[in-house]
Structure formats: C-alpha cells, structure tokens
Write a structure and sequence with these properties.
Blueprint: H1 13-38, H2 42-50, H3 56-63, E1 70-73, E2 89-96, E3 99-106, H4 117-133, E4 137-143, H5 151-170, E5 175-184, H6 189-193, E6 196-200, E7 205-207, H7 211-218, H8 224-228, H9 230-237, E8 242-244, H10 247-259, H11 298-302, E9 312-314, E10 322-329, E11 332-339, E12 343-344, H12 346-361, E13 366-372, E14 374-375, H13 379-383, H14 386-399, E15 404-413, H15 414-419, E16 429-432, E17 437-439, H16 443-461, H17 467-484, H18 487-492, H19 505-516
Parallel strand pairs: 3-4, 4-5, 5-6, 5-7, 6-8, 11-13, 12-14, 13-15, 15-16, 15-17
Antiparallel strand pairs: 1-2, 2-3, 9-10, 10-11
Helix pairs in contact: 4-5, 12-14, 16-17
Length: 532
C-alpha cells in the first residue's frame, strides 16, 4: 500500500492562518477542560480531602492501569447551561487490570454529585457505549441523588439508568459499583442493579430514604449506619458483596473483580503494522481552514493519522468530492470516507454506498471524516436523481453493522450529517474538532432562506416588505445559528462524545477502535431496497 505524499507547505500564509485559527479554538477548549478538571473548585476539593475522601480524578488514577490512556467522554456536557460544565460526572474508557472498561464516576465536589438533566444524558450515553462495544462498566458512586429543582426533567428518564444497567447484566456485560459515599433514593439502585457492589466502611451510605425521610414517612428515628452503612449491608442486608476498609481498599477490590472476570474480546486484535505516520501530527492544525466554505484535501489529514501514512484510495477519479479508501490506525484495519470539497453529488453518494457495502463484506470498521455542507441542490441535480442517490448512501450507512467512528473536522450540515454517519445513525463514537460546526445549514444560508420566504410572503399578501426589519432579523438569525452550531454547544447536548484537539485524532481513533473490537466486528450481508 503506497504512502500518501503531502503537498502541505507549513511555511505558507494559508497554513499559518489556519494554524492560528485552530490554536485559538484549542485554547478555548483547554480553558473549558480546565474548568471540568477543577470540579467544584479549590474550596470544595479541600473540604472533600479534610473528610478523608479522594477526589474523583484521584480515584480514577488509582483505578486504571499505570500509564494507560484514558479516553474521556462528554467532557463539555452542560456547557453554556445553568449547571457546571462537565455536569458533575466523569465518564470515559479506561484500562483496568488489562481490560477496557466504561467508567462512570460522580464528582461530589460539584453540588454533592447531584444528577441534573445533563448528567443523566451523559450517564445514558456512557451505558450505550458499554452496550454497543461490550465493555464492562465500573460506577464510582458518591452522589446526593437528583438535583431537586430540576427533578421534573430528570426523574422519569432517570429510570433508564437502572433499566440499562440490568440489561447489560442480562447481556453478560459485567457491571460493578464502588460506593464511596452517599447513594441515596433512586441512586441506591445503582449498587442494587450492578453485578458486584463494594462499599467503603464509614463512608458508604446506601438507602432508599435517609434518616430525615424515614422520620417524616414512618416516624422512626434512624442513624446513617444502621439504615444504610457498609457494615450493615455487608452483614445484614447482603446488598454489599465486598466490605472495603477505606477508599484505597475499595479501588483494589474493584481492580481484583475485573481481573477475576477472565474477560476477553470478541473482535480481532490489531492485524496491521502500527508504525506512526510519516508526517507530523502537529501539522493537523494547519490543514483545515477556519472558513468551512474553503476547500481542503482530507488526504492531508489521513497522511497524519493512518499508519505509515499508507492509504489505498478507492475510485480516486470518480466522485472526487468524497475520498474513500483503505488503511489502518494503530494496527486496526479501517475503511475511510472523508469529505473533500464539502458538497455531496450523485457520484459521491453512489461511490459511498458501494464502499460501505464492500466494508461490510470484509468486516472492516469505517471512519467518517466529516466536512460537508450537504447534498447538492438545484434543478439539474434534482432531475439527475440526487434524492435517490443520497438515499442509497443513507441506506448503506443506516444498515451497516461494522463499527462506525465519526469525526467532524469542519462542517456537518443538512442531510450530509446523516450520510456521513452523524449521531442519529448510531456511530460507536463521534468526536469533533473545536472549529467544527453542525446545523441544518450554515448561518448565512439559513438566514437568507428565511429572508427570501418572508419577502415572498409579503409579495403574496400584497404587503410592503420592511427591509430594515428584515436586516435586523437576518442578523439575529445568523447570531443564533452561529451560537447553536458551535462545537461546544453541540457537545454540551451530547450530540457527540467530545471535542478533541486535532493533534489527538490518531490516538482517539485508536482507543475508540480498540474499544469497538471488544465486541464482534461483523458486517451486514443483506441490505434494504436501494432506489435505482
């Protein structure tokens, strides 16, 4: 397989301008991630330590294997909302006793680890990732329960957490609860629904109703320990499977439980040479223009992501707005679909559909690198069958069963988001670069469409068209769409699994591919009706 030859000139003004724009976006991302890592801040962290407790990331560091990578998920959940960025919860994929696991951990320094609507979305997404990729789940529990002021938005869907936990167990996917503190009311069902429960002496408190509620409900005076302490649950109720003398012991027991699972992957391991790309990943900062309307060559991205920069392009001379081909990432064979000039025409749609069928025939995972403004419009293209051809591509994406991993590098607009395996099409993982945009269309295009419709409405009704009001409305719409298509806004609502530094793309893909191979990697042999 021949290596790609890069034509990128790092000394050019275009490269330097792109790099400056991307570095500005990365700096904004790092500012938000610093807030996430800080949790509730120094005051609450210090209070937590004085109570003899570890911080959530300290627990994580002791749980996962030394020097192993951790793929954090949904870090920007709740960004821009009334809640703390990160949504008082840490989720991700880490290696514990040589087993890749989904880790779900409350951050008690943020409002006592209370569960708000964004926290719930974040947990449910982590559980879905565990199910789709067949990954054991470890819950690090310390939460005061639901955020009561927003209970109307969280209470009903929160039941899905327990539903999913018990379904994972029924599927043979292990679930573990390491309880460090409060696990109250509905939260008590986390250790109750998990296969294994470890409770920390003197700290774990697991009960459906705490002492105040018990007093109000039945008039009984009860203390924390007799009502839901670790020793009681270990000696009397039987809820606890393991009694931990302290947090370190709890984490040790958790690691031992994973080691005793005799867990093995169902998918094949890496089969290709995992040598690094020939070109510096630092140069990814200068590849994608800040303006999504400016064309870019995705081969420059691939040259800095795939193993040895090797890429065997499929149908290189046909449907050239979409690059397709074969390569490998960290030793895992992959097929790649990457947008070039942004627009998807009929040729690109048919090429993509054929390529996806081939990947399913050979059980090869697919990487989608999005930078698309959508499918082409206009009389010529409608008459040429763009709807039928776009439907072929979307049909193939929707019915493909090999793992899909999607990265939005620039723009993801309209049905192009669907055809390039957006969130609605269940990719195993989906990430975005910090410059990325996602919306039904670009801000200027959307505002322009509304302006045209308003003008036509005025003409049809015989009214004068107010140009000043139209200009003000256009500005307001453009500002709204710019704000709502922002990568942070999209990620905060869990429409992807995280915003990443472009330079981390290869490693993020490698970790996601490794996790996906914990389950079977098998393509579909029969598809639905393709409109010809």
């Amino acid at each position: 397989m021949p290596p790609l030859k890069s034509a990128l000139d790092p000394s050019s003004e275009t490269f330097q301008r792109n790099r400056r724009d991307q570095l500005e976006c990365v700096a904004a991302l790092n500012t938000q991630l610093d807030l996430v890592r800080a949790g509730g801040g120094e005051r609450y962290a210090a209070r937590h330590h004085t109570r003899g407790r570890l911080l959530v990331r300290e627990r994580l560091e002791l749980l996962v294997d030394r020097d192993s990578p951790f793929l954090e998920l949904s870090a920007l959940a709740a960004w821009g909302s009334e809640f703390a960025v990160g949504a008082s919860m840490l989720t991700g994929i880490g290696v514990v006793a040589d087993v890749e696991c989904v880790i779900i951990a409350h951050d008690p320094t943020v409002r006592g680890g209370a569960i708000n609507p964004y926290t719930l979305r974040k947990v449910l997404r982590a559980l879905e990732i565990a199910r789709a990729n067949r990954l054991p789940v470890i819950n690090l529990v310390e939460s005061g329960g639901a955020d009561l002021p927003t209970q109307s938005e969280a209470f009903v869907p929160a039941g899905r957490m327990f539903h999913d936990l018990t379904q994972l167990s029924a599927m043979g996917i292990p679930t573990i609860a390491l309880v460090f503190g409060n696990s109250t009311a509905g939260g008590a069902y986390v250790p109750g629904m998990c296969d294994y429960a470890v409770l920390v002496n003197g700290h774990a408190k697991v009960f459906l109703g705490g002492p105040p509620l018990v007093k109000m409900a039945i008039g009984e005076d009860a203390d924390d320990e007799s009502l839901g302490g670790a020793e009681m649950h270990s000696r009397v109720s039987g809820l606890s499977d393991y009694f931990a003398i302290d947090e370190l012991d709890c984490l040790r027991i958790g690691r031992q439980i994973i080691a005793d699972l005799n867990w093995h992957k169902l998918g094949p391991g890496p089969t290709k040479p995992a040598d690094p790309p020939l070109y510096d990943q630092e140069e990814l900062l200068g590849v994608v223009p800040g303006d999504f309307r400016t064309p870019m060559d995705p081969r420059e991205v691939l040259a800095r992501v795939v193993d040895g920069s090797r890429f065997s392009e499929y149908k290189a001379l046909y449907g050239t707005s979409l690059v397709t081909g074969w390569g490998s990432i960290h030793g895992f064979a992959v097929g790649v679909l990457a947008n070039a000039r942004g627009i998807l025409f009929s040729e690109e749609s048919k090429k993509a559909a054929e390529f996806i069928l081939l990947a399913n025939q050979s059980d090869t995972p697919l990487i989608f690198l999005q930078n698309t403004t959508g499918y082409m419009v206009g009389t010529r293209y409608e008459q040429g069958g763009i709807i039928k051809d776009g439907a072929k591509m979307i049909n193939a994406v929707a019915n493909s069963t090999v793992p899909h991993i999607t990265i939005n590098m620039g723009a993801s607009f309209g049905a192009g988001n669907y055809g390039m395996s957006g969130r609605a099409y269940d990719p195993r993982f989906m990430f975005a670069w910090p410059n990325a945009k996602l919306a039904v269309m670009g801000a200027q295009q959307l505002a322009g469409v509304l302006s045209i419709v308003a003008r036509q409405g005025a003409e049809a009704a015989g009214r004068d068209f107010d140009l000043g009001a139209d200009a003000a409305r256009t500005r307001a719409v453009e500002e709204q769409i710019d704000r709502e298509s922002n990568a942070f806004f999209i990620s905060s609502r869990l429409y992807d699994d995280g915003v990443i530094d472009p330079r981390d793309t290869r490693d993020v893909l490698g970790m996601a591919l490794s996790a996906a191979h914990s389950n079977q990697v098998q393509g579909r042999r029969g598809f639905g009706v393709f409109r010809m």
